[in-house]
Amino acid sequence: MDLALLKEVAFFEGLTAGQLGKIASIGELRSYPAGSFIFSEGDEGDDMFVVTRGKVRISKQVPGIGEEALAILEAGQTFGEMAIVEDSPRSADAIAHSSCE
Question: Is residue 78 within 8 Å of residue 11, measured between CB atoms?
């Protein structure tokens, strides 16, 4: 994981260079083609994500209506942390809005 990018991520604001280095060392780069699900609502959440390239759509399925987009995330933004912090299933879908990492 790119340490320079992590320094720009608001979620990691206030961490020391050493702490950011530890996060960078365990980070794993994953690529997703446009339209693919990164995770689905109800999935177990044991990791969080930092968008490094492309866009990710956070959405929920609304009965009788369909998909409702809650947010479009871009490089430097994080998602998926709520399931870790709250030790609960994913509360929404994360879908590659464009090809992304």
Answer: yes
